[in-house]
Design brief:
117 residues, mainly beta, 5-stranded antiparallel β-sheet, 3-stranded antiparallel β-sheet, 0% helix
Length: 117
């Protein structure tokens, strides 16, 4: 018997380019605030263009320390992330600086705000 999943999920990505006028140096610490809908259980985090040589593509996909676990509560929520050592040299796919990565689920974002720390 061949079994098929009812629904297959893959990682979801939302990419952002940061305006060049916001980039005041080649190494910045930022705070990101994400407003998202807790639709289904999953985990999400931010990957940013940074200086971490151990990260994917020589730091272009450095990960936030924070990871958010969703429980499927069916309501809007807010999460904050600290992004240390941002390079922001447009080295991600499509010339982006930052992306939100949600693992194995449907994922909905209302907004993301970036501030200098």
């Amino acid at each position: 018997q061949r079994l098929r999943p009812e629904k297959a999920f893959f990682d979801s990505y939302i990419y952002f380019k940061i305006d060049p006028s916001f980039k005041t140096s080649d190494r910045m610490n930022l705070k990101a605030t994400v407003e998202y809908f807790d639709a289904t259980p999953c985990t999400f985090f931010i990957e940013f263009d940074g200086w971490d040589q151990n990260a994917k593509h020589e730091g272009a996909y450095s990960r936030s320390e924070e990871r958010v676990r969703l429980g499927g509560e069916q309501r809007w929520k807010t999460a904050e992330f600290t992004l240390k050592g941002c390079r922001l040299a447009n080295r991600q796919n499509g010339g982006a600086d930052v992306r939100i990565r949600a693992e194995n689920s449907e994922f909905f974002v209302h907004s993301m705000t970036i501030e200098r720390e």
